[in-house]
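pasting for the record
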Amino acid sequence: MFSTARALHHTGMALHLSWIRITLAVLFAVVPAAAVAGQARLSFTDDHLSGSGAEGWLRFRAVDDLSGEPVVGAEIHLIAESPTPIAGEFWSTRKAVTDARGVVRIPVDDLKPSSMIQAVRHPKYGISTRDGNATAIWRLSRAFDVPVLVLDWRGQPAPGAKVGFCGYCGHTPDLTNAVAGPDGIAVLRGINPHNHIRDVYVQHPGLDLGYDDVDWYPGGPPDIVRCYWSKPMTGRVVDHRGQPVGGAFVSAPDVHRGPWARTAANGAFTILGGDHDIGTTQVRMPDGRKVFFKRPGSYPVTLTLPDLSDPDVYEGQTGAGEREEPNVPTRRVRVRFETSGERLMVTVRRPGQPFLEGEGDTIRVPVRGPFAIEFRPEDGERGLPGQRVYAFDDASELPPEPVVLKWYSPTIVTGRAVDESGNPVAIESQWLEGWKEAKGDAIEEHPDGRFEYRVRGSGLGVLQLKPKNDDLRMRSVWVPLPLRGDERRVDLGDLVLSKTPQLIVGSETDPQPFVDVQWSRAGFQRAGREREFRLGYDGDWQGPDLKAGDVIGLPARGAEVAWREQLTGSGPWRIAPPKGQIVLKVTAADGKIVVPHVQFADQEMRLPEDGHLLRLPTGVMRFEIGAEGYRTAIVDTVVGTELQAIAVELPPR
């Protein structure tokens, strides 16, 4: 929870920030003239602090995670879990909208808000969720349109597949939906790709749920959701007299999402994505009553409810034949792996039949009918594509033995390091997979500045370049990688190494050497989960390439409040933490000890025992101070670099 600092101007390095505009937008009211003149003004209100949830109201503030500005006009939904979630349907128990200060107030006298999730919708901010015990400040991430490639059990694109984005457990609704185009890509619009839960579910005839999570960065390739085979489960629900039952919920209960379907007026239902080994074994009536069934042997099926006038009955009748286990003969086939060092695992998949695991250099395939050979690294990690698939309509299509299973070729990453005049620069380099640390023996030397890496990962990589010339600065470059394939190349071109650091943190008289600073960028991390990089000897930036919109900051520490500053312009930049300070001495008017909380700008914290707050932005500021059982104090003042002490007595409610 941070505030954005004021503008700082330096010769040759200007960072133009509109902190005053942002802070004024956060204030609850116009600051009185007495405060502008340097005298604090104190008032009281019966309104509770954000996040307290007292007296039947849920109150909190939504702010932009990067700038700290209030988010105006955001829809806030309170959502209760449903035992029968239907794909593509959204529900909420209560809705409210944030005001001009980003504050939302929701009446919850008749609810238990801690048991609900909170969801937010806003055109500029990604659809996000959090639980009902969350903090007084909700930092919102920017919205992104995320492409998702849906692949079927054969590894082929699945046009027309419906994809739902769920931000909590499967008992909560889809927050948005998309349909895959002819290329199998569905675009989930306006989501937060780093929400704490970001599950996707697929609905399409012939596919299972594809239950997976989004893992995507701006500039990267589509995220892949792989679905296995699942035949639609169809049928009717009828009562004990044979009459159709509409509005009942039918499930093949496998995961929280079910999947579930709702019966039409004629009792008909269609379940997509269910596991046939489980089958349609549960019906839940609109009043919540559950009825259980034996697993059907075939579909369509008629599920006959018992006489529900008997409150103790809970088992219905399944009107389908006994299940016949598949008995398709198989034969052994020799295989040969062609890899660049990976150890592979092999599975043969058959629609509606058990998987066949590979054994050494042989696999078993059906003698007839379609199947797919799936292979993947034994040590496969999230950054690697999960599998490669060769699909066949029949075993007769297999090539001569041994069947060659070729793993993806490495992606070739090339480029050249040059100085500001375009001349080649001798360098050492390292490649990092995602956010992992490079190994010491991974250092390579390039006398002419040209480099080539054979990369086995996908997603986001980082290339570190260290010049042999000490006058030049090292550089780390973000490298979005394509999906794995054969003959993939990424040409980074000429990468310029400069004599000037991209960023210096600290003033010319007060550098910040070897300090761990926080970095965040829209679409690169979960809100409030900044990544840390250590500054150099001069307070110079040592992390990956910066750009306008990035935020650099320091966490709260002792009396020092958290500080964040957003970069604007093309750089290079110099920024420094603000020097504002104040002491808030809080006591109770009735003489009792209080443990006050204070909220200001886009921050919320427990007030230190001595009341001292350092590293505040200077300028007009409003502080809200509250404690349980007492009225809320509002302090309007002007924060300066000279210490200002303000005494506050909290009257009881």
